[in-house]
Design a protein that fits this description.
The chain is an alpha/beta fold. The chain contains 14 helices and eight strands. The chain is globular and about 55 Å long.
Length: 359
Amino acid sequence: MNESTFPGTEHVTAHLPGQYPAPEPAQPISTPPSPEHTPPRPAPVPARALPDNYAEMPKPTAKLTAEDLAPVNDPNGPRHKIGPTGRPLPDLPEPQPPTKTGPAQVIAMCNQKGGVGKTTTTINLGAAIAETGRKVLLIDFDPQGSASIGLGVQPHDLELSVYNLLMQRDITADEVIQATNVPNLDLLPANIDLSAAEVQLVQEVAREYTLQRVLDPIIPLYDVILIDCAPSLGLLTVNALTASNGIVVPLECEFFALRGLAMLTDTIAKVQDRLNPKLEIVGILGTMFDGRTTHAREVLDRVVQAFDERVFHTVIRRTVKFPETTVVGEPITTYAPSSSAATQYRDLAKEVLARCPAG
């Protein structure tokens, strides 16, 4: 074995007779240079900066107090209070019961990122609107069937679902729609069968209009129809956007959710241009908000800067009540009607109805 066997050890030698020459005599140790001739130290390496897409986010507003976070339309508080979005809270009127039923305002709950509160918002917003005397239909358009479970319906027990309504011409909406335990609130349930529709619809003519076709006969029967979309931008979601008048975008107050908004708004623009020119963004809803964290306030500030009045004044805060409502299969408005979470969704219902007078 020679010294080249281990790269990087060429300078390491031993004095072995007959194999290696004797080492050179040691050199005298030089004295250190005088201070005036000491070479300057190299400049320190600057600290690594934050990523540009995070560093550009605005500084958070002043930390909000409990008084600032008073619910919208709090009868005991002044209306000049600043809400969690950094804007004065509006003084919205109490929704009056409609004089007649229909035609329905169709609103899609859409965000391609999962876990942002779409299903929770669909269930609780629908229940809050139903409390105003309006006839509401929830459409579970997610193969996971989460909205159905959240209203006490077991997807695996369904004989008919929204899949049958989409793919079988001899099935009518009356055969699939189920009444819930909440007055004025009906459900069009879904289960895993709906995942097959994504593939089967590809072969259909005018496949983007399939949901709109099956909803046309029942639009006069309801005041508001809410569609709980799947966490994707596939054909099912395009169907929901094509059949809708408006979109509510639940947005978790977290950075990854913020990044997905650009892709979603691009898809909405394409649907508006090619399929449904009447489609509009009703509002962007901040969900899972915790005003105690700087990050949540930064994200909410950034959304307000980008979308301004399209952002709802109401913000849904984190609470342990929402997982509990899923277990019992009912909305927060009936499970804990006096809770702050129920108040937030009632406030959201007022904002949605104010922005959608047709509903």
